[in-house]
Amino acid sequence: MKQDPTYGDVRALVLSELDTALSAIDPQSVEQLMEAVLSSRKVFFVGVGRVLLSLEAMAKRNEEKAKILYDFLDQSKMFRGTVDKEFRSLMNVPFVTESKELDAEVVKATKAAGYDNLKGHKSVGGLRASIYNAMPKDGVEALVSFLRDFEANHK
Fold first, then answer.
1. Pairing outcome for strands 127-130 and 80-81
2. Where are the beta strands (DSSP E) in the chain?
3. String of b and e for 16-52 (b: at least 16 CB within 10 Å)?
4. pLDDT digits over 107-120, tens only?
5. Is the pLDDT of residue 20 over 90?
6. Res. 10: pLDDT tops 70
7. Are 61 and 137 in contact (CB under 8 A)?
8. Average pLDDT, the chain
9. Distance (Å, whole) CA 154 – CA 52
10. CA distances from 14 to 11, 29, 85 (A)
11. What percent of the chain has pLDDT over 70?
């Protein structure tokens, strides 16, 4: 029984054939090779599978990060989220304190501590944490720790 080639085997073969075709610089050969590569279901499905796994992992990380911040906001006496739970974003988390003056104090304190861009949208005000894909979980945890300490010191 013949064993299917691995992703590495297929990749090496494709790169080798691509190198051969490109060195000949015959556009028709390159076009034929690209058609063959693109019509290879195994290469396509391996690529799509890897992309889907990466997206699933990224979605899981984003859900974890958002949960950390929203859990804090939900239990906080000083900070409160401004969006109903069913409409909450995994990327932008808007929240407020009891006053615009305290919001401004939080923004000033976060800037002094090295957290930038916590000020809310100019048309809405308040505060906004942007926790896009590039923001690590550690960064969200550090922000929550800072906000928790701020709350404890401003009762």
1. unpaired
2. 80-81, 92-96, 127-130
3. eeeeebeeeeeeeeeeebeeeeeeeeebeeeeeeeee
4. 999 999 988 888 88
5. no
6. yes
7. yes
8. 84
9. 45
10. 5, 13, 48
11. 83
Of 71, 77, 151, the C-alpha closest to 109 is 151
- Token duo for residue 118: 């916590």
Q: What is the pTM of this model?
A: 0.67
Is the torsion defined by CA of 87, 91, 96, 101 positive or negative? negative
Structure tokens belonging to residue 107? 């923004």
Length of the chain: 155
Q: Is there a contact between 78 and 101 (Cβ–Cβ < 8 Å)? A: no
Count H helices and E strands in the chain, helices first.
Answer: 5, 3
**Is pLDDT of 23 > 80?**
no
d(CA 72, CA 129): 13
Give the span between the Cα atoms of 102 and 31, in whole angstroms.
63
* In contact, 73 and 79? CB cutoff 8 Å: yes
Residue type, 118: L
CB 131 within 8 A of CB 93: yes
Rounded-to-integer distance, Cα 97 and Cα 100, Å: 7
Secondary structure of residue 119 in the 3-state scheme: strand
